[in-house]
Amino acid sequence: MTVVGLDLAGAQTRPTGFCKLTKMRAETALLYLDEEILLKVQESRPKVVAVDAPLSLPPGRKSIEERTSEHLREADRELLRRGIKFFPITLGPMRKLTERGMRLKATLEVQGYCIVEAYPGGAQDILGIPRKQRGLDKLKAGLEAQGILGLCDGLSDHELDAATCALVAKMYVEGKAVTYGDPMQGIVMPPGDKPRPKTDDCTAKHEKAE
C-alpha cells in the first residue's frame, strides 16, 4: 500500500514537502512547481493523497476572496473545541494556500486520485509528537516512534510534516482515522483527543481573522 503526504506551500517559489509512504517506509523530497507535484503523485500511484492545505471554503463562500461573516468551517470549529491551534483560512497568507490547495485537489481528482485534507500540527498533537517548533530531531524521533522508516537525518520541516500527512493518509486507508467536520471534505486526523485549553477566548480571535 502506498500513500502520499504533501506539506503544500502557498506559492510555487517556496518548497512543498513530499512524502511517499509504502507500508511504513518513507521517501521524501522538496518540490516547487505544480507540475512537479502532479508528476510525483502520478509516479507514486497512491491510494490516498493527504494535503496540508485547506481544501474547502467556509459555508456560503463562493471564493476565498469573497467577504462574508463566515471565517470558519465546521472542521475548524472542531479544532477549536479540541484546543488544537491553527491558522484560520481567511487569514492573509492562508488565502493563497487555500487557492492552490483547492486547484491541485480538483486536478488530482480528475485524474482519479482520492484527496483528503490533513493538518500535521494537529495530528502531531493528537499522537503526542513534538511539533517542529520544538526541534526537528524531536519531530523525526516522534514519527519514527510511530513506526515510520527511512527518514534521513537533516530532513526539512516540510518533509517531516509531509511524512505526518502520509501517516494520517495510511490511517485513513486502514479505517483508523477520524474526520473533523464534513465527512466528505473535513480534516482527516488520527483518532484520539486533546485536552481543551484553560481559556476559551481563541474563538473570538478566529472569528475576527478577516
Explained architecture:
The structure is a single chain. Helix 4 (120-127) crosses helix 6 (157-173) and helix 5 (136-145) runs parallel beside helix 6. The chain is of the alpha/beta class and 210 residues long. The model is unreliable at 195-210 (pLDDT under 50). A seven-stranded mixed beta sheet has the order 3-2-1-4-5-7-6. The chain has a single domain (2-207), classed as Ribonuclease H-like superfamily/Ribonuclease H (Nucleotidyltransferase, domain 5, 2-Layer Sandwich). The chain has seven helices and seven strands. A hairpin with a 6-residue loop joins strand 6 (178-180) and strand 7.
Helix percentage: 25-40%
CATH second-level architecture: 2-Layer Sandwich
- Shape, please? globular
Major sheet: size, sense and barrel closure?
7 strands, mixed
CATH topology: Nucleotidyltransferase, domain 5
Cα end-to-end separation: 41 Å
How many structural domains does the protein architecture include? 1
CATH class: Alpha Beta
Low-confidence stretches: 195-210
CATH superfamily: Ribonuclease H-like superfamily/Ribonuclease H
Can you give the mean pLDDT?
Answer: 89
Strand order of the largest sheet: 3-2-1-4-5-7-6
Task: Please give the number of β-strands.
Answer: 7
Q: Descriptors for this entry?
A:
single chain; alpha/beta; Nucleotidyltransferase, domain 5; 7-stranded mixed sheet; 7 strands; disordered C terminus
